[in-house]
Amino acid sequence: QVQLVESGGGLVQAGGSLRLSCAASGSTSSINSIGWHRQAPGKERELVALVTRMGSTGSTHYADSVKGRFIVSRDNAKNTVDLQMNSLMPEDTAVYYCYAQILTPPYTSWGQGTQVTVSS
Questions:
Q1: Contact in structure between 117 and 93 (CB atoms under 8 Å)
Q2: Which of 11, 42, 81, 106 is most solvent-facing, going by the fewest CB within 10 Å?
Q3: Is 25 left (phi over 0), alpha (psi -120 to 50) or beta?
Q4: What would the pLDDT profile of 63-111 be if each residue is shown by its tens digit?
Q5: Beta carbons within 10 angstroms of residue 14's beta carbon
């Protein structure tokens, strides 16, 4: 099993920056991809950014809405994945969830979520 614990988040004004961090523990060698989703009030959970293949050179993917503003990065030694969020906008307000996709056996592990609120 893989456990995920997020930190960071909070309240920031539009145009500001925040950094989220997610620490993975357990069977981290089984992680195929790791990243972040978010869920705004009244909306479905959506993918924000991910890094493929935790334990080797991977590639990053971003939602169109955050490209050029958010940067996802991982530290293999610490088993962490961070999300640097710049030029934040009120529409970025949501609960942000760290997630890890495991292939064998196939399942998705989720963190508990952290609130990000961007004021206008």
A1: yes
A2: 42
A3: beta
A4: 999 999 999 998 888 999 999 999 999 999 999 999 999 988 899 999 9
A5: 13
Token pair, residue 52, equals 């493929």
- The rounded distance, in Å, linking the Cα atoms of 43 and 24 is 27
What is the four-CA torsion angle of 78, 97, 110, 66, rounded to 10 degrees? Answer: -80
109-115 own/partner pairs: CB under 8 Å, 24+ apart: 109/1, 109/2, 109/3, 109/4, 110/4, 111/4, 111/5, 111/6, 111/22, 112/5, 112/6, 113/6, 113/39, 114/6, 114/7, 114/8, 114/9, 114/20, 115/9, 115/10
At residue 116, the 3 state secondary structure works out as strand
Q: Tokens 């620490």 appear where?
A: 23
C-alpha dihedral (100, 45, 94, 62), degrees to nearest 10? 60
Q: Tell how many helices (H) and how many strands (E) occur in the chain.
A: 0, 11
